[in-house]
């Protein structure tokens, strides 16, 4: 990511109540936390690791179906 002063990531959004907000790198930090929980201070597996682990616990016969 670019420096904190970079405005190229910023987008304005109009809320249902008419208020307009501007957000930047926050748009990427929220979804990134799903894959790297350490970015928000959690010691946990990412969603991709949880899914893989769950599929590997299934019978071998259904694993391909789980991934499709």
TrEMBL record:
It comes from Arcella intermedia. PANTHER family: ACTIN. Coiled coil: none annotated. It comes from the Eukaryota. Transmembrane segments: none annotated. InterPro entries: Actin, ATPase_NBD. It holds the Pfam family Actin. This is Uncharacterized protein.
